[in-house]
Amino acid sequence: MIKIIITGPESTGKSTLSKNLSNYLCEPFVPEFARYFMPGLNEPYTASNLVDMARGQLFWHQLYKSNANKVLLCDTGAEAIDIWFQYRFGGIDPEIRALFLADEECVYLVCKPDIPWEADPLRETPHQRPQIFDSFISLLNQFEKKYFIIEGPNEKDRLGCALNHLNKILI
Questions:
Q1: What is the pLDDT of residues 93-133, one digit of tens each?
Q2: Is-contact 147 107, C-beta < 8 A?
């Protein structure tokens, strides 16, 4: 089984792409843990909360793994929380970085910020998406992770781009 992590900056179509790939490939997808965790907080999130989110996301990856046949599709992973920690708190959290590095071999689909921003209560950086995208690419290159860039102006084009890349590794 191959683990595909759909990642990238906020509002780049990761959840939509995860759902579309899931439907197309008839494989389950792991939702973004933060979307369920954050609304339960009674105060602004902390650095410790981000560590909990990284652990929770990877726990969900393990839970969903038994339901997958050939591909485990994940709407984000520890890499996104690693990047977010850097932007939000100005450093690297050693535990989050270790969780990212210890994650099994994955292929990353990095969504480019070439679609319009959509406001959402959990989103914070409408004007920093290009820089954050570059941070994702830099992190994945630094640790020699396999990735493909997903781009296109609409859902159909982005799904086609993702499938084109996945066909290279799934066949």
A1: 999 999 999 987 899 999 999 998 887 777 778 789 999 99
A2: yes
pLDDT tens, position by position, 14-25: 999 999 999 999
Per DSSP bridges, beta strands 146-150 and 106-111 are parallel
Q: What is the CATH number of the domain that holds 114?
A: 3.40.50.300
Distance CA 76, CA 8 (A): 8
Q: pTM value?
A: 0.95
Whether the CB-CB separation of 100 and 79 falls below 8 Å is answered with: yes
Three-class DSSP labels, 64-113: HHCCCCCEEEEECCHHHHHHHHHHHHCCCCHHHHHHHHHCCCEEEEEECC
| Rounded (5°) CA angle 155-159-163 | 175
Q: CA 50 to CA 82: how far, in whole Å?
A: 9
Instruction: Name the domain count of the chain.
Output: 1
State which residues form the domain around 95.
Answer: 2-170
